[in-house]
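Hi P.,

Sorry for the delay on this. The queue was packed all week, but I finally got your sequence through. Input first:
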Amino acid sequence: MKVATWNVNGIRARSSQLLHWIDREEPDVICLQEIKAGPEQVPEPIAQLAGYHVHFHGAGGYSGVALLLRTKVFAAAPVFTSPPFDLEHRIVVAEVGTLVFASVYVPNGGKDFAVKMTFLRELVAWAGELAAEGKHLVLCGDYNVARTFVDVHPVLRKQVIGQLPEERELIEQLLAHELVDVGRHVEPDNDRLFTWWAPWRNMRERNIGWRLDYIAAHRALVDETVTAKHYRDVGTSDHGPVIAHLRATPAA
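Then the structure:
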């Protein structure tokens, strides 16, 4: 099962790039963040994308997420929902049997750190409820937290929002609910594994960035065949996409 996530930083600005990427990669599950558009504002070629069940969860020029499931793999149209703690169009969910797919855009926290921490705590609790119910969560998106110091370029490591111990502790609590950080699982020693680069001073070209975008999958979906790739050369968003290959069905 091919799962992809990308913070597109404006789906209207990146629509042609997104279509080209989808056409090339043909992911089975696509999670998008920061679409910055309501459903009626999504360009028609994407809003009516052939071969996918699509759901855009946004309200204009801020935030917004999307989730697309490939009909070739998921024949029946899923029901798309959002948890009660979603107050700013930041998470959309689809359940297929015991599989739960979610596209999430965690608040940055720069303007209201308390809101970010509340969202993360609610996300942790929600993931715990799913695990207790025997569900298999695949949580993809922009977590807006660099999990460890290795997930930030050495020249950018400092005590700032996105790198604070209390944020990182909540990410570990989240993963403790039977989730595997697939990118780090595949490349445990790569200290230049980044997905976000500030849009100045050629930071992207120099690969001076942070790892903020994750595919976290239930451990029953992760085996020795799992792969993950982070793309620095795709699109003009300040984030690069991440693609992972997971088990199609949970291991017993």
